[in-house]
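worker-03 picked up job from queue 'complexes'. Input manifest follows; two sequence lines, order preserved.
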Amino acid sequence: MTANTFGSHFDLNLTRRLRVYSVDPSLASRISTREINEITIDIPWESYLGGKAVSASSTHADIEAISHEDVKERKSSLKPGPVGEYVEVIDYDPASSVFYVPVDLNDPRLLASDGLAPSEADPQFHQQMVYAVTMATIHRFVQAFGRPIFWSNHIVIGDKYVAQFVRRLRIYPHALRARNAYYSPAKKSLLFGYFPVTAKDSENTPGTTVFTCLSHDIIAHEVTHALLDGIHPRFNEPSNPDVHAFHEAFADLVALFQRFSYAGILEREIANTRGDLSSETMLAQLAGQFGRATGHGSSLRDALGQCDRQTGQWKIREPDPFALDRETEPHKRGSYLVAAVFKAFNLVYAERVDDLFRISTQGTGVLPDGDIHPDLVNRLAREARETAAHILRMCIRAIDYCPPVDITFGDFLRAIITADLDINPVDECGYRVAFVESFRAWGIYPHGTRSMSIESLRWPGFAEAFARAKALADNEAVHAESIQVVGTKGRMMAQQSLDGFLDAGPDGSGTDEMLLRDVSRTKRKSFEALDLRQDRFDLWKQMKANGYFIWRWLMQDNEREVVGTLGLVIDDNKAPATVYRNRKNEPTIEVHSVRPIVLKTDEFGEQNFLVVEVLQRRRGYLDPEKQKKMDRTRKPLSRDEHGDFTYRAGCTFLINPENKEIRWVMRTAGTIVADSELERMRRYLTGDNLPNLNEFAITSPATMGLASTTMRDEPFALLHDQHED
Amino acid sequence: MPLMTAPKSGARIRMYRQGHGDCFLLAFPREGGGKPVYMLIDCGYKPGSQITRKGKKVDANRIVKDIAVATGKKIDIVVITHEHQDHVNALGKFKDFEFTEAWFAWTEDPHDEYAQELRKRHKDQLLGLLGARRALKLAADGNAGASDALERIDELLALELGNDDDDADDADNAILSSLNIPAVFGAASDPLKSKNKKAMSLIKKRAGNRLRFINPHEKVLSLGEAAGIRVFPLGPPRNVDLLSDEDPKGSEGFPGHGMATSLSFFAAGANRANGAAGRAASVIAGKEQPEAEMPFDPTFSLPKDTALEPLKHDGFFCRNYGEGETGNPDDDFEAPAAASWRRIDEEWLYSAETFALKLNRGINNTSLVLAIELTKTGKVLLFAGDAQLGNWKSWDDGVFVVDGKTQTARDILGRTVVYKVGHHGSHNATLNGSAEDAYPNLGWMGRGPFEAEFTAFITAHNRWALDKARWNHPLPSIKKELLKKARGRVFQTDEDAPEKPDNVSQSDWDGFMNDERVKCTDLYFELTVLDD
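worker-03 finished. Artifact:
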C-alpha cells in the first residue's frame, strides 16, 4: 500500500492522551476558571491494519475480537500533520502565504508529555487540538453507530458519473481571516478562520487574535456537519424550514454534550450551581470566546437562557410552544431544538439525582447554604455524565432512523424514540418520556401524529406499514387484529421476492459504471451482512455493491408489496411524467445509502442490520400551471429537463440481510406522486408559507445563492451574514 | 413638449425608467402662481440595466433630455439621498441646469465631525476591499469560483465608486484618484475621479452655496416656494453606527484608531497575497503595514513556494497539498491525496464579498428619508431612498411639532399615499409588520382613509438584477405584499402599466387608472396626487 492509502484502525487497548483547551483560551485569563482551562483527553490510538488477518475496528462490540496475536506491534499509524485514518491536518494559511510545520505526535517527547502544552502562539498546538477534538467526536459517532464512519463521496461528473471514496476529512486550522468557520462539502474540508479582537471591554483586549480552531465547540460543531454530510449528502437539501435548522442544532448538541464527558468542567459546574443544571452554566453555553469577541456580549449560543444585554443579567428561557412559528433563520430556529433536548436532559438528570439530594439532606431535599460536599459533587457529576452520554447516543443513533430527505424536528423526535427502543428497550430512567415532555413544551411534534404517546411516536414496523399502505391503496379499513396477520404475510412476501431476484439475470440500467465494474468482480448474488473488520475503502465498496443488490431486489418486487409498503412507485402508469425514469420508462429508485448497524436483538447477541435509504426524484416547477402541464406530458421528458427544483420522496428502512426481515419503515411525508407535498415544497421555496418577521423572509432557498448569501455555497458557515443588522 | 405642470393643489410625480436606479421628478404648485416648483430626487442607474421599449434603449440621455424640457432646465430643489452609483451617476449630465437648492443628508456635511469620521472609515474600508479584489483577480484566472466572486464584488464596488467600465483595473485607479492618493502605477494610471464624486461635486457647484445638510427630526422643512407642502426628514439616524462593519463601537469613539480592524487585518493578508505581483497596497494606502499582521512568529512558518518543493519536510506539503495530483495507483475510485479540488488558495478572499456587502449596506443606511406632506389633506409622499433596517428603525426616534401638535412617525406614515420603495425592494429595505408593531413598517403606512389611494413605486429591473448582479430585487414576498396593500397600484421600472387585479372592481380601478391621474410612457410613469 502506498503512503496515501494505508488502512488503519483504532486500537482499543491503547489510547493517546492529548492536552487541549477545555473550552477555549479565554478561560485561562480568569481566576475562577484557570484551573479547568486545560484538560487531557483520551483519543483512540490509531495503528496499522496489517491486512485482513488483523481484524479490529473500534466498535464496542469488537473488543473481544482483538486477539493477542492480531495486535503484535501496535505501532502508531499516525503521521505528522497529524494525518491519520479519518482526518488530515494541513496547516496552510493562504492569507499569510505560509504553511506551518506539521506536528509529529509520535515524537517521544510529546508522547511522554501528553502532547504540546496549550498555547495560542504555537500553530503546532493548534494542529494538535483540532486533531484531538475531531477524533474525540468521530470516536463518539463510531461508538454510537457501531461501525466505521465515512465522509461524503467526491462526485466526478465527466464522461461518466463516478463517486470517489474520500478517506480523510481535511482540516485547515488557519484557512480564513474572517469571523467564521465552516465545513465545505465540496472540499471535504473544515476551514477555520482567525480574526483580531476589536472590541474593548472587560472581556476583550483589542489587537489580540481569536482562533476559531482553538474553540472546542466550534471544532465539534463543524466536524459534526461533515459527519452528517457523510451519512447522507441529500439530508441538507432545503425543502422545509427545519432542514438547515436541524443541521445546526444537531451540531450544537454534539458539541454541548461531548463536553460532559471531560473531567473537570462538569465537576466545577456542578459545584458552582449546587447541582442545579438548569441555572446559568457554562455547560449550556457554546463558543464563549467567539461570542464575546464578535460583540454578542456572551457566548454565541446558550441552550438554557440568555444574557440581557442591558442589565448583564442571565435569564432562563422558558419553553415557548409558539417559538417555532416565528423563526426561520437556521441557527435561531435550531436553537429551539437544542433547548428542547437540553430540557430533556435536565428532566432525566433531576429525576436521577433526587434521591441523592434527599440522602444528603436528611430527607428534606433542601440544601443548606454554602458549597455542597465534594462527594456529592462527584456523585452528581457521575449521574450527569451518564445521562448526557445516553442522550447524545440517542441523538446520534437517531440519525439512522430519519427519513432520507426533508427532515423535520418532529421526524427527529420519532427517530429518537424509535432508535432508543432498539438500544434501551426497558426505559428505566424515563429518557423517552422526558423527550416527549420537553418536545411538547417547545411545540415540536410530528405532523399527522394522533397522540404524543411512545407507541404512536415510534416509526411503524414493516407489518404496520404494510397494513397502512394496503389500507390506503385498497381504500378500506384494516382492523387492528388483522395487522399482525397481514404483517406476517408481508414478511414472507419480502423473503419470496428476494428469492425471485436471485434467479434473475444481471441488468445494469440506471447504475453507475463504478458499481457495475465492482459488482462484476464479486461473486455475490445478493446483499449481505457487512464485514466491519476490513479497510474502510473495501467496506465502502462492499456497501456500494450492496446498494446495487438492494436496488435490484426492489425493482423486481413483482407483487409491488415491499415497494408499496416503502412508499415507492415503480409503475409507469401510476406516476406523473415529471418523475425521473429509466430507459425502460419505469420510475427510477435510487439506493443512496446502505450502511451497517448493529442491533441487540436478544440478550445473547447482536445482529448486523442494514440501514437502507431509497429515494425517487421528480421535477418540480415553481409555476403550478406548468407543473400540471408537465405532469401530463405524454412522451418521456428529456434527461436534460430538470425543472425549477427537485422534489424527492422515499424511505429509510432497517433490514436484516440474513432473513430479509424489515424492522422499521421511515417514510417521507408523501410519496413521489403526492402533489400536496410537492405543493408544500413549492410554497416553501417561493417563501409563501414562511412566518412573518420584521424582515421579509429571505431564507427561502429560492433566494439563497443570491447576493444576500455570501461565503458562496457554503451552507454550514458558523455565521450567516444575511440576518445581521 | 411642454413644461411639466403641477395640479392646482397637490403634487405630480414622475418616476423615470432609466434602468435599475432612482430618478424622480416632482412638480408642486408655486406660492403666488407661476411655473411649478420642481424637485429632482436622485438620478442614476446601474450600467447595463437599461430597459428597452419599442426597440429603443431607455437611457439616461433620453431621460435628462426629457427633464430639460419638462423643467426648462431650472430645478428648484435637487435631493441626493446617498452616494451610490444607481442614485447619482447620471447627475453629471445636468451641466447646463440651474439648481436653486441642493439637499443632502448630514452625512455629506463637510463640517460635521461624525460625518467626517464616517467618510474616513468608508475610505479605509474601500481601500481594504480593493486589496482583496486585486488578490482575487490574480486567483480568478481560470478559476470559475473566483471569477464569479470577483464579478459580484465588482458590482458592489461599482456602487461605491460609480465606475462603469468593465476594465477591472479601472476600479483601482478610480478609487485612488477619488481618494486623492497619488497613483503609483506610473504610466498606467489616469487621474480620473470616480464618477460618483464627480457627479456629487457638479451638483454642489451648480447649486452654489445653497447646500442644505439635513438632520432627522430636527425641524419641519418647507420646499422652496412650493405651496401647501411640508417636509419631515426621518433619516438617516445620527445615533447608530451607520457604517457598522464587523467592529462594534469601542469605548473611545471609533475603532480603527491605533488598532487593527477586522478589515485592515483581512486587507493586510490581501496585500501580502498581492506582493507577488509587485503591488503592495500598503504603499498605495500611503502608509506602511506592520509585520504584526502575521498571526505567528516566523519560526513556525515556511513560505508557500519553498514549502511546496518536493523535498521539503519529507515532501509533506507537496504530497498532501501539492501541485500535482497523486492518485491511488491501485484504484481510481479513491480520491487522490493532493487533489486540486481540495485546495483553498482563494477561499479566504471570498469574505471580501461579506465586507463589500456590509459597506454597501452602511451607505444605504445613510439615505436621506423624506416624508413630503400635502398640508390640506395631510397626504404624505414617502421617499425612503435605499434605507435599510438600521435606518427604518430610527424613524420613530423623534417627533415633530406642527401648529402646536405633535406629529410622530406613526402619524406621518399612517397618511402615506405614495411610497417610493426602499432599495429596489430588497429584503430588509421594506420592513414587514402590522400597524400594532412597535417599529416602523409597511403596516404603519396608508391607514384609514389613506389606504384607498396607497401607491408604490419600485425602481428595479428584475431580470437584470437576477441575471447580472444576482440580486433578488424586488424580493417576491415584498412585491406580493405591496400589490396586496396597494390593490394593484404598483409601478415598477421594467414593467408596463399596472394591471387591474381580479379582486378590484372596474369602477375602483378606473378611479385610479385614468388620464387625470396616471400617465405611462416609455420614459416614465406619472402619478398625480390631489390635495383637496
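worker-03 released lock.
Chain B touches chain A through 89 residues (CB under 8 Å).
Chain B has three domains: 10-79+215-242+365-530, 113-196+253-286+347-360, 291-342.
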